[in-house]
Specification:
By secondary structure, this protein is of the alpha/beta class. 49% of the residues lie in helices and 11% in strands. The radius of gyration is 20 Å and the shape is globular.
């Protein structure tokens, strides 16, 4: 059987390679356990000064979690199994965020959902011109997790609400602007980045990041920075209190981007988009990764008890008819108070 996580140590580095390229390195429970084991093994190892996260293949760093496994857990009423997996995944992401040694993530190609959980909390987050970053959960009746609400809450203005509700992808420039990445390098210099790291072992994370940026960074292509000019209408529209009210504001705007955003939100689960909206805003207010993850876990349990999640996975991943039957059908039908009740941390 193929080794889906390869952990290699040498020259002062610990390199973790997600090695499931045929699935764009989508995470399984076993992979999460192996990643955790590598981080624990290297935590106190004096021979390891920097840890690198990268993905095998040219399609992407990590497409997220294993959605089909998620679907089977829900369909067979094994909700706790998946909640336990989430707890394990969140714990690895917390370790990355607080790791005592610099963690450098190479977010080349696709980096979605669970991939953002790994790379987005690293000390040094590198994208390339072909990077595509996102939290696409609302498309399947789910809400951003793995600390994604924390990152979205920290994005400038209302960009977090925009990306969370529409499930839109970010190119390299947008990811840097939104705070999901630090700088861009050319695809053909990724190996050079890794080759530079042994000389930087022992430096602080800030110094490692600064050195890599000076030595290897290149401007993100203009085409990958599409959202900057849209900030005024995004900030105005997404300041509304509910998803339904946000849609009303988007409908009133003359910008083509606003119409596209409204169409994307309406295509996603109304319940999930409201949960995402409230979770992102709560995370912004807290500005605390641990609290955001606890909230995300409660939101996951809540959404698993509703039909949109299995229906969304069926429509987008299993049958691929792209025609989910949401319940409720529109944002106006969502019980926003019921969603709000799961947001505060229990006393």
């Amino acid at each position: 059987m193929a080794e889906h996580v390869i952990a290699a140590a040498g020259d002062g580095l610990g390199v973790i390679t997600l090695n499931r390229p045929e699935k764009i390195n989508a995470l399984t429970r076993e992979m999460v356990a192996d990643i955790d084991a590598a981080f624990e093994a290297w935590r106190a190892d004096p021979a390891i000064g920097i840890v690198v996260l990268r993905g095998a293949g040219e399609r992407g760093f990590c497409a997220g979690g294993d959605i089909k496994g998620f679907y089977e857990s829900i369909r067979s009423n094994r909700h706790q199994d998946f909640l336990d997996f989430l707890s394990e995944e969140f714990e690895v992401d917390r370790k990355i965020a607080t790791y005592p040694k610099p963690v450098v993530a190479l977010m080349d190609g696709l980096c979605m959902g669970g991939g953002v959980g790994l790379a987005g909390h690293a000390a040094v987050r590198i994208v390339t011109p072909r990077s595509r970053i996102g939290m696409p959960e609302t498309r399947i009746g789910y809400s951003p997790d793995v600390g994604g609400t924390h990152l979205l809450g920290r994005a400038p203005g209302r960009l977090g609400e925009h990306f969370g509700l529409t499930a839109a992808e970010m190119g390299a420039g947008d990811a840097i602007l939104a705070g999901f990445a630090d700088f861009c390098v050319a695809v053909d210099t990724l190996d050079d980045v890794v080759a530079t790291l042994p000389d930087l072992a022992g430096l602080s994370a800030a110094d490692v990041g600064a050195a890599l940026e000076v030595l290897h960074a290149s401007p993100a292509p203009a085409a990958t920075l599409a959202i900057a000019a849209d900030r005024p209408w995004i900030d105005a529209a997404y300041a509304a209190e509910t998803v339904d009210a946000i849609l009303d504001r988007l409908d009133e705007l003359p910008h083509a981007g606003a119409a596209r955003a409204a169409a994307s939100i309406r295509a996603n689960s109304p319940l999930a988009t409201e949960a995402a909206l409230q979770a992102i805003r709560a995370a912004r207010a807290d500005d605390h990764l641990e609290e955001a993850m606890r909230r995300e876990h409660r939101v996951a349990a809540y959404l698993m008890a509703h039909p949109d999640l299995p229906e969304g996975i069926r429509a987008q991943v299993i049958d691929k008819d792209r025609n989910p039957a949401w319940s409720p059908e529109t944002a106006a039908g969502v019980d926003t108070a019921a969603v709000a009740a799961i947001m505060p941390h229990p006393a």
